[in-house]
């Protein structure tokens, strides 16, 4: 049976976001992720959406100070973060 964490880490964009956040030296915005990690035509709106989904699902937390969903930066954090990182084999 698949649980919520498997669904999160099994999604290719969300998996890449978690990996990028794990290896990033600081918070990551959708715009920064798009410019540094994406070369397959994925849109900025799509990346922004998936960052918000990861926040909703308890994997990321927004950095305070920016309400714009495209410019808002995120860090790994939340109640399901460590399990997601573990299942991806990052820790």
Task: Characterise the protein shown here.
- There is one protein chain.
- This protein is mainly alpha-helical and 91 residues long.
- The protein is 52% helix and 10% strand.
- It is built from five helices and three strands; from the N terminus they run ααβααββα.
- The protein has helices at 4-10, 12-23, 30-37, 44-56, 81-87; strands at residues 28-29, 60-62, 73-76.
- It has a three-stranded antiparallel beta sheet with strand order 1-3-2.
Helix content, binned percent: 40-55%
Mean residue pLDDT? 89
Low-confidence stretches: none
Strand content: 5-15%
Give the radius of gyration.
12 Å
Total E-strand runs: 3
Coarse morphology: globular
Helical stretch tally: 5
Question: What class do helices, strands and sheet pairing give?
Answer: mainly alpha
What's the structural blueprint in terms of helices and strands?
Elements: H1 4-10, H2 12-23, E1 28-29, H3 30-37, H4 44-56, E2 60-62, E3 73-76, H5 81-87
Antiparallel strand pairs: 1-3, 2-3
Helix pairs in contact: 3-4
Keywords:
single chain, 91 residues, mainly alpha, three-stranded antiparallel beta sheet, 3 strands
Brief summary of the model shown:
It contains five helices and three strands. It has helices at residues 4-10, 12-23, 30-37, 44-56, 81-87, and strands spanning 28-29, 60-62, 73-76.
